[in-house]
Amino acid sequence: MVSERQLEAIKGAKVLMVGAGGIGCELLKTLALSGFQDIHIIDMDTIEVSNLNRQFLFRQSHVGQSKAKVARDAVLKFRPQMSITAHHANVKDPKFNVEFFKQFNVVLNGLDNLDARRHVNRLCLAADVPLVESGTTGFLGQVTVHVKGKTECYECQPKPAPKTYPVCTITSTPSKFVHCIVWAKDLLFAKLFGDKNQENDLNVRSSDASSSAHAEDVFVRRKDEDIDQYGRRIYDHVFGYNIEVASSNEETWKNRNRPKPIYSADVMPENLTEQNGNVAKNCVVDTSSVSAMASLGLKNPQDTWTLLESSRIFLEALKLFFAKREKEIGNLSFDKDDQLAVEFVTAAANIRAASFGISLHSLFEAKGIAGNIVHAVATTNAIIAGLIVIEAIKVLLKDTDKYRMTYCLEHITKKMLLMPVEPYEPNKSCYVCSETPLSLEINTSRSKLRDFVEKIVKAKLGINFPLIMHGSNLLYEVGDDLDEVEVANYAANLEKVKIQASSVTLCSSPPDFCCSCNDADVLLFCFFNIFSLYFMSFYYLFLSCLRCYLSFLLQLLMGQCLP
Ligand SMILES: [Zn+2]
């Protein structure tokens, strides 16, 4: 039941919806049926076949079209009097600036990634527009309300990092299939097809003093070696030799099942490889269609391959990478949408699982685990969308006391599905919504400006258009309106270690960037306050040297050391 007061607020509201996917479709429908009249939608995605089972505003004929536009058209069919504006664009596009956000009474997020959520959070803070944020993972979901100065912002609490596993579990003592997947994806795949300069723990346990010669360059294809021989050598090394070395350590296996080494000749008698698919070289192919399953005649991704099938897929996939995608080798990183990569990783994980007595899994399951995919549930999206609208109405009425963060979860003991919690107050030390400056400590003798900009400012702090100043000097900025000279200067600055950068770029003025510190090992203190930056429609990052050495909060953000 909607009261007169609520109806009035709904009718007069101008709403921005970010995301027109799983939650977005449900949300737009619920907003329309609740009486909202003026809605803008931003979504950069186009409709895919896999969306159709739950994103019910879309049909087969819409595949390839803009989600935002098709969603608008679908809703206008049953609510033709509404005003719906669709933007087929990235919400991070500079045209959606603070001024753009200010026209709305409330912003509703139905996004699928952290980066865009942080971006919208900051724009809402800068524009002083309330944000209702949401997310679902399978049967779980949550809706939270963020109003500047009244509740915490989206970034007040650190977000849980993706689950990681101890290195030794992955390299030597896997006990679950996911450990085998992580090994196959992050170690073996990366070692064979990724950047050769990246550190890799693949040989951690097998490269003791006596075997270091053996481990040397084992992954590099020898000149006189054909691809079948190479594949079998890799197979025998990682599933045979390495396991044999690892299993010889008595201590490790006292309370665990000792793994058994697997050699290719035991699984696949020599003649079997002859039956592997023929790879014709030099014919032009669409790399996205290269598939070891296809060349071996395995069709159903939900079937669990035997050890023999996994072994054949392993060799075939490796062969196909060299035969059809050789140019990419050295630059590949695992992608759950890369069929051949998923086949290779599934096969390698299964062979390793067989060795450690862990049950084998299908490609479909392995892909889900490797890509951290939790299958979406339409009902959860519908519940969450309903809760978003309830909170949006409270926000429009400024019923501050009634705001709730609601978690959709199965609470076994209390037999409840929804758990409402009163929102927390803003976190006083949040570097996004409070005035608290963030201090960073950087080893300026080793860190280039590029490290600072790419790894910290962009990746960790989520600032997309930084402008780095030192006093009144501009060290770095991003934008479409820069001229060639500026672009070249900033690019050159990026490659400099910061102390050098300061003395070079500040040649026209005293190089006070590092103050009186001439010692190259001295650490530089930088100070900035992100929040104030957002009032300029793009983001300024002030970097100023207060003192040359100060304590710092970086570990809070990074949890790791600077380069
Ligand atoms: Zn905050």
Automatic annotation (TrEMBL):
GO terms for biological process: protein sumoylation. Pfam families: ThiF, UAE_UbL, UBA_E1_SCCH. The keyword Glycoprotein does not apply. Zn(2+) binds at C153, C156, C430, C433. ATP binds at residues 19-24, 43, 51-54, 67, 112-117. Heterodimer. This is SUMO-activating enzyme subunit. The lineage of its organism: Eukaryota, Viridiplantae, Streptophyta, Embryophyta, Tracheophyta.
